[in-house]
Amino acid sequence: MQLPFFLKTPAVAIIGDVCYTSLIENLNYHDVPCIKYAISKGLGFGIVAGGAIVKVPQIIKIVKARSGQGVSVPSYLLETLACVISLAYNFRQNNPISTYGETFFVTLQNLAILALMLHYSGKNTSSFVFISSLLFIGNVLGRTSTVTQVDGTVINTAVVSDDALKFLQAVTIPINLFSKVPQIIENYQNGSTGQLSAFTIFNYFAGSLARVYTTVTEVDDILILSGFLLSTLLNCVLALQMALYWNSSSHTIKGEKADGALAGSSETKKRVKKLD
């Protein structure tokens, strides 16, 4: 089967010439490696597209409430730091954009959420310092340059060596652990998920689960795979908390209103008695 050029070009760009010929032109649906690769690419670009909007509901929720109550600032700081390191590492490793592209969008959205939470807490100076520091770290880690020597040899140089960046990527595993744990603890202590967005939490869980598959299929890197496995586990806990505490916030508000009404009625009765 032959596709029109405007469909063939993006298809080849996504799954490559070999798999395009096998799956599309020859309709060889017994080609398991190409089928797995095509599924991985589809999931990968789907995750990247989802990553562009995954935290928009969280941003909207904070803006509407004019508060980040229930959303852990330390969690977002650590998560954003891990994202910055992973983004630089994947970029320097020349990994396919379909395997990490959402990290770029998540980083931008995390920075926006941090800025909003700190702004509504009256900590604008802290917001500027934190966000500037994260952007500076990302620039330093990702920056590379090429130097051509007299004999024509091209040497790649970087402020942070590949070995050092690989170590930092390994460090993102415990960072991801500690970025989720404060939020999990805060949810447990409050018995509520506060201003956390259900859309963001559930999509994060689904996305990290899909990322395990795309990483196994396309990227032979145990560090990246370990990070996604850990993220999937902790995102599962957050998703379970979201389901468990689904109506907790509304119940609390109702309880507070009821208590207020009872207190008001008792005060009224006391005043009436005094007048009598």
Description:
This protein is mostly helical. It is built from ten helices and two strands; from the N terminus they run ααααααββαααα. It has helices at residues 5-25, 32-51, 56-65, 73-92, 101-120, 124-142, 162-190, 198-218, 222-244, 248-275, and strands at 144-148, 154-158. It has a two-stranded antiparallel ribbon with strand order 1-2. Strand 1 (144-148) and strand 2 (154-158) form a beta hairpin. Helix 2 (32-51) packs antiparallel against helix 8 and helix 5 runs antiparallel to helix 6. The longest helix has 29 residues, at 162-190. The radius of gyration is 25 Å and the shape is globular. The relative contact order is 0.11. Mean pLDDT is 83; it is low at 250-265 and 267-276.
Features of the shown structure:
two-stranded antiparallel sheet, 4% strand, 276 residues, mainly alpha, 2 strands, globular
Beta strands, count: 2
Q: Pairing-aware structural class of the strands and helices?
A: mainly alpha
Q: First CA to last CA: what distance?
A: 94 Å
Describe the largest sheet.
2 strands, antiparallel
Summarize model confidence as the mean pLDDT. 83
Runs in which pLDDT lies below 50 for 5 or more consecutive residues are 250-265, 267-276
Main location: membrane
Keywords: Membrane, Repeat, Transmembrane, Transmembrane helix, Transport
InterPro entries: MannP-dilichol_defect-1, PQ-loop_rpt
Protein name: Mannose-P-dolichol utilization defect 1 protein homolog
